[in-house]
């Protein structure tokens, strides 16, 4: 198995534009997809599907959303969870209030609701940058969660805003088993990941990155920073919204506004910092890392300390490790796991000749 | 009308504390260009460390629990802890990130927030603790008698303390050598370095001062509503204060704090009932956001045109 | 390949036939707070010429350029571009009208590759929308390829084929300046503003850059406004030169006229201050 691009010449710009220009990568991707679509649902346990794979996929989608805004368009947001909430409650209400609303359309409409709200809260980005904007997105975080709790219409007058997702039905087929929910989530996430990849390698993505890197220069070559930023807010919030809808429908089943708190927003931010700012692949790696770490930690602590473990230590240790890792990655590898993966591949490309 | 003033005064008094915490932000920002998101966590750290020491010191030293001696001993130890925290932060987190984009530094301080919250709770535990500073939360009688307005003794005490601190810090940085050096650093890092101002020294001082400010704020807030994790959210409201006042302006931090303090209380009392209450949690942020749309440079900030 | 490009440029025939006034600046004054960056400056730029702006540090040269394409808004004065007056112009409008530029302190998009940087220069000519980009298929893909071809021509022209896929941040200074020129050229501008394109370069790099500037002017007929400190270069390649000092215009004319102007000599020798 040699990983080489030698001998693979690109005869046309089409070929040069491919997402995976190296053949081995294309094959690898196909194998990976086959594995996750075919092998995993056959062999994975319910626990793995429900408690690990589904949330990892959903958080990957949210992380892609935040990465579009922060990693590609350079606008820091601390309100991702709130946009997830809008998506979840939006989808819920569309399906609740419109008879025969198809599931997929419902979650897309949930995503669009989030996009609208995202654009509204993105308006200040036209005049402010950096942490000014971060503070502005805190307004979205706190306001949206509050509004969802305080206006009972959103949760169909249930107590304290809790909603229970309706059963998922597509073309008469009910998605009730973990396997089916997993496959549905995987399919949605795969499609949206591809769309995200397309966006960032096209003019839209270049406009985002141009505004991120040097907004004055971007404007001078005719990019409208306003449009670029607002479109990033819209697409990003759309992704978070769809992720939120899936979070309610295929992962938890029952959600409340308070579940989409600042902590969750931070978690998503950590996913992109650790996974790789400005990388779609990194969004997946970061999501997997952040979901798996606490589980792993728990296992390790229970097997070493057993019942001697003081209460609360686990969650505090989690805070310490997350915080420490963020600082570590920012200092040592600001491009995150995605860059490490890339470096590994570059090494492999040269292997076994080190130079 | 009396009620309006009651709310306004209560708001202004609590706003002084926001000013105090915001001042900590401003100092750090001016000196090192870091927007320290962890300021809220530092407040929590300080308060929890203080009550933690208050609990363990009698056992360690044989001093009488709740005595003045224990109080001051705990205070000094907590202050020491804040200085250590500040210096460590500067060494371990910020120095390696020097010359990185602001946004990277900002994200690092978010990481720092988690780190601090985790460490302090791992040491002292996460349960809510009371904190008694010996000042009761009751109305001042002569104001109640003469103007029929309830003004809390505790609020006045807290505001006075914070006000004195704010004033002395402002004077300190205006008139002392360290203060002048700090302002030089804020104007131009390179130039300050080249005339021999020890940057790292200044940073350490500034972080320690911010730690001190956090300790005072933590004690006051902790005494009012218990020492608990929610303190971090209260302290976070210093962020909208900064947006109103501008990140680099000391008077801005002071005025911004008062505005936020007063307006959130007034909004809660007069707008809250119409929308189901609980709007204090977001009102300062939304106010800041709306304000940004009108005056992005803040109340006292200068309009800035990017140089190309 | 270059022929192809020359044909698509606004002026098919090559040659330095200097034409009408294309950009006319009248009584421009610009202040930043108390700093007077420009005071009552008037001069014009003619089609197809190479017009240089010189002056000591802080004279206001960059500010002048920033006024020309709307990055700075002068408090007083009018700008006529192709006879149309405007006092307030935003950079986007300038770009749509065919003004492109480079910056004194390189303003490349650091996180992007050379190719992507230059592709952004085609931005205004791209017509597909976000939804088409999402699919990256059909019109969007065709457009991408079509513009990629144009960009490849610019890459060939500036001889930067080998660094196409390199992130610009990793390039040496001289090459970065060249990529910035490429990005500006990709927009096929009629007026090209260059802010010290040769600053910090060694002799060889300077020669290359000089050649490129002359070629652009010669082959595409692009009008060029150039800020440069190297007097040798300026006197060599300019048609006309404006001299600024302390925000005021102290000289204007052909290189020879300017060279012999006593005010200019005084300013450069520091005699007047
Ligand atoms: N965005 C800005 N904000 C404030 N002052 C500015 C700004 N841009 C330029 N200036 C001031 O305007 C004056 C002219 O600056 P400018 O950059 O135009 O000079 P220059 O001739 O290009 O100098 P150099 O040769 O050093 O590039 C200077 O005093 C400068 O400090
Ligand atoms: Mg200049």
Supply database-style keywords:
heterotrimer; A: ABC transporter involved in vitamin B12 uptake, BtuC; two-stranded antiparallel sheet; 14 helices; globular; B: about 300 residues; mainly alpha; binds adenosine-5'-triphosphate; binds magnesium ion
Describe what this molecule looks like in 3D:
- The complex is a heterotrimer of chains A (355), B (308) and C (273).
- Chain A has 355 residues and is mainly alpha-helical.
- Chain A has helices spanning 13-17, 23-43, 46-72, 80-97, 103-122, 130-150, 178-200, 203-213, 215-220, 225-252, 262-275, 280-305, 313-332, 336-350, and strands spanning 163-164, 168-170, 173-175, 254-255.
- Chain A has a single domain (43-350), classed as ABC transporter involved in vitamin B12 uptake, BtuC (Orthogonal Bundle).
- Chain A has 14 helices and 4 strands.
- In chain A, helix 5 (103-122) packs across helix 10 and helix 12 (280-305) crosses helix 14.
- The model of chain A has no long low-confidence stretch (mean pLDDT 92).
- With 308 residues, chain B is mainly alpha-helical.
- Chain B has one domain (2-233).
- Helices cover 74% and strands 0% of the residues of chain B.
- Chain B has 14 helices and no strands.
- Chain B has helices at 2-32, 39-61, 68-94, 102-124, 141-147, 153-175, 177-187, 189-194, 199-225, 231-236, 238-245, 250-270, 272-275, 283-294.
- The N and C termini of chain B lie far apart (54 Å).
- The relative contact order of chain B is 0.18.
- Chain C has helices spanning 2-8, 61-68, 91-96, 114-120, 130-135, 139-157, 173-186, 203-220, 231-237, 255-259, 262-269, and strands at residues 21-32, 35-46, 50-54, 76-81, 84-86, 99-101, 191-195, 223-227, 240-245, 248-253.
- Chain C has a 6-stranded mixed sheet, with helices on both faces.
- In chain C, strand 7, helix 8 (203-220) and strand 8 (223-227) form a beta-alpha-beta unit.
- The longest helix of chain C has 19 residues, at 139-157.
- Chains in contact: A-B, A-C, B-C.
- Adenosine-5'-triphosphate (ATP) is lined by residues 32, 35, 37, 55, 57-63, 104 of chain C.
Topology diagram in text:
The complex is a heterotrimer of chains A (355), B (308) and C (273).
Chain A: H1 13-17, H2 23-43, H3 46-72, H4 80-97, H5 103-122, H6 130-150, E1 163-164, E2 168-170, E3 173-175, H7 178-200, H8 203-213, H9 215-220, H10 225-252, E4 254-255, H11 262-275, H12 280-305, H13 313-332, H14 336-350
Antiparallel strand pairs in A: 1-4, 2-3
Helix pairs in contact in A: 2-7, 3-7, 3-8, 3-10, 3-11, 3-12, 4-5, 4-6, 4-10, 5-10, 7-10, 8-10, 11-12, 12-13, 12-14
Chain B: H1 2-32, H2 39-61, H3 68-94, H4 102-124, H5 141-147, H6 153-175, H7 177-187, H8 189-194, H9 199-225, H10 231-236, H11 238-245, H12 250-270, H13 272-275, H14 283-294
Chain C: H1 2-8, E1 21-32, E2 35-46, E3 50-54, H2 61-68, E4 76-81, E5 84-86, H3 91-96, E6 99-101, H4 114-120, H5 130-135, H6 139-157, H7 173-186, E7 191-195, H8 203-220, E8 223-227, H9 231-237, E9 240-245, E10 248-253, H10 255-259, H11 262-269
Parallel strand pairs in C: 3-8, 3-9, 6-7, 7-8
Antiparallel strand pairs in C: 1-2, 1-4, 4-5, 9-10
Helix pairs in contact in C: 4-7
The complex binds adenosine-5'-triphosphate (ATP) and magnesium ion.
């Amino acid at each position: 198995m040699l990983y080489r691009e030698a001998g693979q010449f690109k005869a046309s710009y089409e070929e040069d534009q491919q997402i995976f220009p190296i053949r081995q990568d294309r094959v690898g991707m196909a194998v990976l997809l086959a594995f996750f679509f075919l092998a995993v649902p056959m062999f994975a346990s319910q626990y793995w599907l429900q408690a690990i794979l589904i949330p990892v996929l959903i958080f990957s989608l949210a992380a892609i959303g935040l990465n579009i805004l922060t990693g590609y368009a350079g606008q820091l947001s601390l309100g991702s969870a709130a946009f997830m909430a809008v998506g979840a409650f939006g989808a819920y209400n569309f399906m609740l209030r419109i008879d025969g609303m198809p599931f997929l359309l419902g979650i897309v409409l949930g995503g669009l609701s989030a996009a609208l709200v995202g654009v509204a809260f993105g308006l200040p980005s036209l005049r402010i940058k950096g942490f000014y904007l971060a503070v502005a997105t805190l307004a979205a975080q706190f306001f949206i969660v509050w509004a969802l709790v305080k206006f009972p219409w959103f949760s169909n007058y249930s107590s304290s805003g809790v909603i229970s997702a309706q059963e998922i039905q597509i073309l008469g087929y009910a998605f009730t088993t973990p396997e089916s929910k997993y496959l549905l989530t995987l399919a949605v996430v795969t499609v949206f990941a591809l769309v995200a990849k397309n966006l960032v390698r096209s003019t839209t993505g270049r406009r985002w990155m141009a505004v991120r890197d040097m907004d004055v220069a971007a404007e001078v070559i005719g990019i409208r920073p306003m449009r670029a930023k607002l479109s990033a807010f819209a697409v990003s919030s759309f992704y978070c919204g769809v992720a939120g809808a899936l979070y309610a429908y295929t992962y938890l089943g029952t959600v409340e506004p308070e579940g989409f708190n600042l902590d969750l927003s931070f978690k998503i931010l950590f996913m992109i910092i650790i996974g790789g700012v400005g990388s779609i692949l990194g969004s997946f790696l970061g999501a997997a890392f952040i979901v798996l770490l606490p589980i792993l930690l728990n296992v390790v602590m229970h097997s070493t300390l057993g019942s001697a473990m003081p209460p609360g230590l686990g969650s505090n240790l989690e805070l310490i490790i997350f915080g420490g890792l963020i600082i570590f990655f920012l200092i040592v590898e600001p491009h995150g796991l995605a860059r490490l993966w890339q470096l590994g591949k570059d090494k492999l490309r040269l292997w076994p000749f080190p130079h | 009308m009396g009620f309006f003033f009651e709310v306004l005064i209560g708001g202004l008094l609590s706003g002084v504390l926001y000013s105090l915490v915001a001042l900590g932000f401003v100092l750090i920002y001016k000196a090192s260009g870091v927007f320290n998101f962890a300021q809220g966590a530092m407040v929590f750290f300080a308060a929890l460390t203080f009550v933690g020491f208050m609990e363990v010191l009698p056992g360690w030293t044989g001093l009488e629990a709740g005595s003045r001696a224990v109080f001051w001993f705990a205070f000094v130890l907590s202050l020491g802890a804040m200085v250590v925290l500040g210096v460590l932060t500067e060494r371990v987190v910020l120095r390696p990130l020097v010359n990185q984009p602001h946004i990277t530094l900002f994200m690092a301080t978010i990481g720092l927030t988690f780190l601090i919250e985790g460490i302090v709770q791992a040491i002292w535990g996460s349960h809510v603790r009371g904190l008694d500073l010996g000042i009761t939360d009751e109305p001042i009688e002569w104001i109640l008698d003469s103007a029929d307005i309830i003004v809390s003794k505790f609020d006045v005490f807290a505001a006075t303390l914070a006000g004195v601190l704010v004033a002395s810090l402002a004077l300190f940085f205006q008139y002392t050598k360290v203060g002048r050096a700090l302002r030089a650093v804020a104007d131009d890092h390179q130039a300050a370095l080249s005339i021999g101002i020890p940057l790292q020294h200044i940073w350490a001082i500034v972080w320690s001062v911010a730690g001190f400010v956090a300790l005072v704020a933590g004690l006051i807030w902790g005494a009012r509503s218990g020492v608990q994790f929610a303190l971090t959210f209260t302290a976070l409201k210093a962020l909208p204060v900064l947006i109103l006042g501008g990140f680099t302006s000391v008077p801005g931090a002071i005025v911004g704090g008062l505005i936020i303090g007063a307006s959130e209380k007034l909004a809660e009392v007069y707008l809250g009932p119409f929308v189901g209450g609980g709007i204090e949690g977001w009102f300062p942020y939304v106010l800041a956001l709306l304000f940004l749309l009108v005056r992005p440079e803040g109340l006292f900030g200068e309009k800035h045109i990017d140089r190309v | 390949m270059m022929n192809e490009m020359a044909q698509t440029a606004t002026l098919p025939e090559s040659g330095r036939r200097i034409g009408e006034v294309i950009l006319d600046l009248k009584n421009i004054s610009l202040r930043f707070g108390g700093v007077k960056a420009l005071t009552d400056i008037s001069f014009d730029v003619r089609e197809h010429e190479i017009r240089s702006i010189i002056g000591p540090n802080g004279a206001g040269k960059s500010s002048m350029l920033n006024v020309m394409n709307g990055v700075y808004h002068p408090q007083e004065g009018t700008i006529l571009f192709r006879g149309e007056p405007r006092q307030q112009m935003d950079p986007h409008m300038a770009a749509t009208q065919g003004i492109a530029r480079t910056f004194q302190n390189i303003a490349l998009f650091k996180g992007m590759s050379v190719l992507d940087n230059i592709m952004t220069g085609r931005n205004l000519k791209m017509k597909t929308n976000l939804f088409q980009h999402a699919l990256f298929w059909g019109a969007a893909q065709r457009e991408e390829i079509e513009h990629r071809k144009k960009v490849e021509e610019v890459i060939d022209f500036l001889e930067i084929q080998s660094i196409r896929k390199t992130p610009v941040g990793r390039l040496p200074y001289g090459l970065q300046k060249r990529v910035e020129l490429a990005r500006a050229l990709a927009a096929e501008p009629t007026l090209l503003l260059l802010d010290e394109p040769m600053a910090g370069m060694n002799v060889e790099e300077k020669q290359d850059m000089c050649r490129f500037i002359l070629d652009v002017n010669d082959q595409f007929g692009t009008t060029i406004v150039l800020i440069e400190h190297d007097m040798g270069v300026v006197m060599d390649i300019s048609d006309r030169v404006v001299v600024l000092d302390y925000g005021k215009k102290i000289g204007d004319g052909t290189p020879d006229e300017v060279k012999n102007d006593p005010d200019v000599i005084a300013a450069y020798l520091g005699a007047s201050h």
